[in-house]
């Protein structure tokens, strides 16, 4: 596979968030409140929230570029979320990010 030097590969961000006992409903609400606004941010290609059988939440995002993800992360929407979310989590989020290696459909 060859890549074009000036074309950035999409970036994905994904991970698990474990709610504290008694905080699942509030965490779910907070995460759902991110979905539609985030999908509307420039450069968003995918934004999905899943709830696992064990109660953890799985968030999966794909952004056109690292710059688009950085702009999203700098919004008031994310700042407000990040300020409140620690009180609802059991431990730190398990988060991963990276450049996609497989082709992304145009």
TrEMBL record:
<dbReference type="InterPro" id="IPR007138">
    <property type="entry name" value="ABM_dom"/>
</dbReference>
<dbReference type="GO" id="GO:0004497">
    <property type="term" value="F:monooxygenase activity"/>
</dbReference>
<keyword id="KW-0560">Oxidoreductase</keyword>
<dbReference type="InterPro" id="IPR011008">
    <property type="entry name" value="Dimeric_a/b-barrel"/>
</dbReference>
<dbReference type="Pfam" id="PF03992">
    <property type="entry name" value="ABM"/>
</dbReference>
<keyword id="KW-0503">Monooxygenase</keyword>
<feature type="domain" description="ABM">
    <location>
        <begin position="11"/>
        <end position="100"/>
    </location>
</feature>
<protein>
    <submittedName>
        <fullName>Quinol monooxygenase</fullName>
        <ecNumber>1.-.-.-</ecNumber>
    </submittedName>
</protein>
<dbReference type="InterPro" id="IPR050744">
    <property type="entry name" value="AI-2_Isomerase_LsrG"/>
</dbReference>
């Amino acid at each position: 596979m060859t890549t074009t030097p000036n074309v950035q590969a999409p970036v994905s961000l994904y991970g698990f968030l474990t709610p504290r006992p008694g905080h699942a409903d509030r965490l779910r609400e907070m995460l759902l409140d991110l979905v539609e606004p985030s999908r509307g941010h420039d450069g968003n290609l995918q934004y999905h929230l899943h709830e696992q059988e064990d109660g953890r939440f799985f968030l999966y995002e794909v952004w056109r570029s690292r710059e688009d993800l950085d702009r999203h992360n700098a919004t008031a929407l994310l700042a407000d979320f990040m300020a409140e979310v620690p009180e609802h989590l059991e431990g730190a989020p398990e988060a991963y990010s990276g450049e996609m290696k497989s082709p992304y459909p145009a």
